[in-house]
């Protein structure tokens, strides 16, 4: 909110091509508003379809339902052998564990790269950067074979354990960049006071790095929540399905019969991501703008 | 700098007192051990989940492997078959390239256009920016793919809207000529994150360049061509590379919209979808490994090509 005020206050100086006349300004706003409606229309339509009476879903292109009816949510929730509550819980478990794994393991590695001196540091750092460029397809099949032989298929372990081994090198890179910006004098003062590396990491680096840790945590959560490919490969038992697999099953099993239920569950599946978006919009946008993180 | 060295000496001196009694290894450990302790999880992950599997994958690509029996060495047979006798590979290649060539330029053009409109101190910037970014954030999920499948179905919302203007739309999803466009539109709809990067790039352009140009009587259009576009080329380049690699890897929308088949008539058979079908549908793990390496090669070649040609059009001021 303050950002909006700030940017409108500072508008004249930051406007590179000069201020528009009133007519130009109206035109730009008209264009932007039209584009916004086009962008949001499908989403709003889906939400509206989820609360419409069944026979009305495809009858109208309007966003306003004639009456509001939450029956679709009940039908959708219990529409499969396993309820969506189970899928939500599974997604939540996997996402939370992933967040913990990414934040812990990546910050440990990042601290070593950014602050500690040891033989081979530059070599390993270069290797770490190199892994950023390897697409997951290359390691996919041997990893699957490995996890299959460990008996981990149909558990959350293949989705979670790699995160505790800092497999999302991108977050390491992000944290290294941030850690490097923290004044070295702080570490040195702590060392003089007899702190070891571990306490410096725990008592100085982590508390001062909350913004980058939060960014990593939020993106981890959203990406894991939305992930379809990993669960598709590793989870075959419906009791272990995440919300994305649950939705996909719902499409297959009810092809044309229960669109209301499908839209209701789709809407619900977006709620956590939307919630994060609402509360951490600034952080997410800064994360994208400064690092080029995708999505 | 002097302070840094001073304190290092102090710490070094303090640390030397103990290891002297414990020998050489202890002193090496004292000096380098902490770094490796902190790096340990990543090192295990690197060897166990990246390097090891990458080597194994290269080996598997020269074998026939169905997950049940041990891999059987077949030499280059997989690669030969991919190159000469696999019509589905050719189809997947064609679909994927078509998708990249259609979706990336549209997406980046929209992103740039909207970023420029937003950059000129528009009131309510944060609201617009949030609205345009939201689809990028939601886009990877199954819910959106499901929604898209319904929007573009024969009796879906898009055709209902078209009907209001008296246009009778085709059945977008079940017609091989149109199905790819459904996926392209979905991808373009998610122009939010390149837009934010463009916005950040536009902020970096010093305003006095525009002031000078406008004093010299340069038109807005000319200013865009001569100042904005050249100074933005590094960001355009970055976005283009990232979005292209991303498009090569697209999976979920094609999988959901085609019900996992890549149909109709392979018209949405994205490369990754074909790889998935071979590996986890037909359990041809060796063949799928070869497909994976070809994809890596293509992405690597593309990236190298982009960087080589970038020197002719990307403008870096130093």
TrEMBL record, chain A:
Residue span(s) of domain ABC transmembrane type-1: 88-280
A UniProt-annotated Pfam family: BPD_transp_1
Localization per Swiss-Prot or TrEMBL: Cell membrane
Residues spanning the membrane: 26-45, 87-111, 123-147, 159-179, 200-225, 262-285
Keyword list, A-Z: Cell membrane, Membrane, Transmembrane, Transmembrane helix, Transport
Membrane-topology descriptor: Multi-pass membrane protein
Primary subcellular site in the record, as a coarse category: membrane
Family annotation (CDD domains): TM_PBP2 (cd06261)
Family named by the database record: Belongs to the binding-protein-dependent transport system permease family.
Protein name: Carbohydrate ABC transporter permease
Species of the source: Sinorhizobium garamanticum
TrEMBL record, chain B:
Pfam families: BPD_transp_1 (PF00528)
Primary location group: membrane
Transmembrane segments: 34-60, 97-118, 130-148, 178-202, 223-242, 254-276, 288-308
PROSITE patterns assigned: ABC_TM1
Listed InterPro entries: ABC_transporter_permease, MetI-like, MetI-like_sf
Record-annotated ABC transmembrane type-1 domain positions: 93-306
Superkingdom as given in the UniProt entry: Bacteria
Keywords in alphabetical order: Cell membrane, Membrane, Transmembrane, Transmembrane helix, Transport
Membrane topology per record: Multi-pass membrane protein
Location relative to the cell: Cell membrane
PANTHER family (UniProt xref): ABC TRANSPORTER PERMEASE PROTEIN (PTHR30193), ABC TRANSPORTER PERMEASE PROTEIN YESP-RELATED (PTHR30193:SF1)
Family, per entry: Belongs to the binding-protein-dependent transport system permease family.
Protein name: Sugar ABC transporter permease
Organism this protein belongs to: Sinorhizobium garamanticum
Taxonomic placement: Bacteria, Pseudomonadati, Pseudomonadota, Alphaproteobacteria, Hyphomicrobiales
